[in-house]
Amino acid sequence: AISEREGEWSEECEGWFGEGLRCEVLRFANQGWQRGRVRIRLEFFPETQKLLREERPRRASLEDRPTREEIYSRRDEVYEAYREPNENDY
Questions:
Q1: Does residue 53 lie in a domain region?
Q2: Spatial separation of the C-alpha atoms in residues 17 and 19, rounded to whole Å
Q3: What is the Cα–Cα distance from 78 to 71, expressed in whole angstroms?
Q4: Is 38 part of a structural domain of the chain?
Q5: pLDDT value at position 23?
Q6: How many CA atoms lie within 13 A of 71 on its CB side?
Q7: Does 14 have pLDDT greater than 70?
Q8: Residue 14 sits in which domain range?
Q9: Is pLDDT at 54 greater than 90 in this prediction?
Q10: How many distinct structural domains can be found in the chain?
């Protein structure tokens, strides 16, 4: 993942995503070398809402959904599992 490589990041790496790095490319048809820059650009294109609705499994009714109390109690269970020990635990 990207976060694992964070220590290897440098100002030179930043150039790939910002203004780009200077380079030259050889043009075909005897046009010779052309100077320019190379830049990496990453984009996210969300799917249309219609497609998302079609792919999502449908529930039979609202009764299948967890109640608000069930949702919050699950979050408390996670908190309890990872909480810091206190004096009463010893």
A1: no
A2: 7
A3: 11
A4: yes
A5: 92
A6: 5
A7: yes
A8: 2-42+59-83
A9: no
A10: 1
